[in-house]
């Protein structure tokens, strides 16, 4: 599990491409190295990856076909930078919201509004069906960052970013057209799906109650 509070950024220093498979090596900040071991989980742009090799501060991770298909990690090249978060411990402060590191879709940055101490970024989901889980003032994970949803339209949503977030994460360098990883808040997803299921059952029961008297006649 993760908290959505990015602990640092890491540069991709090497990439090995194979058929529908990729291994990339990042240079982790020194502060994130203590206790790191093979098999540990580390979120890259919000996507949970497993440590496969450690060589000093150079740490390797494997990306399988599904990861490359769903996330933006397959678009990255040597020299690019990713948001990094080590897996949460039970004693950690949860300053964001609980996240699994399982990316559901990506979103394209479609508008950026800059003011003196604030940046408003609008996103359009690649999978429009997921918009039902994006609620005003709800939680969303964007490239591994726990953020509060601002305005929501039928097809787009925005977040408001303070200078600290822009400085500590990769969002400060994002431009129009860039893709970001999206993790939907699982609690929101569960509530929306439950309500939809209950309403569907209610509609089905109401329809049956109208049909049955006719059948009896």
UniProtKB/TrEMBL annotation:
GO terms for molecular function: riboflavin synthase activity. PANTHER family: RIBOFLAVIN SYNTHASE, RIBOFLAVIN SYNTHASE ALPHA CHAIN. Keywords: Repeat, Riboflavin biosynthesis, Transferase. Its EC number is 2.5.1.9. Pfam families: Lum_binding. GO terms for biological process: riboflavin biosynthetic process. It catalyses: 2 6,7-dimethyl-8-(1-D-ribityl)lumazine + H(+) = 5-amino-6-(D-ribitylamino)uracil + riboflavin. Pathway: Cofactor biosynthesis; riboflavin biosynthesis; riboflavin from 2-hydroxy-3-oxobutyl phosphate and 5-amino-6-(D-ribitylamino)uracil: step 2/2. GO terms for cellular component: cytosol. It comes from the Bacteria. This is Riboflavin synthase. Catalyzes the dismutation of two molecules of 6,7-dimethyl-8-ribityllumazine, resulting in the formation of riboflavin and 5-amino-6-(D-ribitylamino)uracil. Lumazine-binding repeats lie at residues 1-97, 98-195. Residues 1-97, 98-195 form the Lumazine-binding domain.
């Amino acid at each position: 599990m993760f908290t959505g509070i990015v602990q640092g950024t890491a540069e991709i220093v090497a990439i090995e491409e194979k058929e529908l498979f990729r291994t990339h090596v990042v240079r982790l900040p020194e502060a994130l190295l203590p206790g790191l071991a093979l098999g540990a989980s580390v979120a890259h742009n919000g996507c949970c990856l497993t440590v496969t090799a450690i060589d000093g501060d150079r740490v390797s991770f494997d990306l399988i076909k599904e990861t490359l298909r769903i996330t933006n990690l397959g678009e990255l090249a040597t020299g690019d930078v990713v948001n990094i978060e080590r897996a949460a411990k039970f004693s950690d402060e949860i300053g964001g919201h609980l996240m699994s590191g399982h990316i559901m879709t990506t979103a394209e940055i479609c508008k950026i509004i800059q003011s003196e101490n604030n940046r408003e970024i609008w996103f359009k989901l690649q999978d429009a069906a997921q918009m039902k889980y994006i609620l005003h003032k709800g939680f969303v994970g964007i490239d591994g960052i726990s953020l509060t949803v601002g305005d929501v339209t039928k097809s787009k949503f925005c977040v408001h970013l303070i200078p600290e977030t822009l400085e500590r994460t990769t969002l400060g360098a994002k431009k129009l057209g860039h893709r970001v990883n999206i993790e939907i808040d699982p609690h929101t997803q569960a509530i929306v799906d439950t309500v939809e299921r209950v309403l569907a059952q209610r509609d089905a029961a109401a329809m049956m109650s109208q049909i049955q008297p006719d059948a009896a006649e």
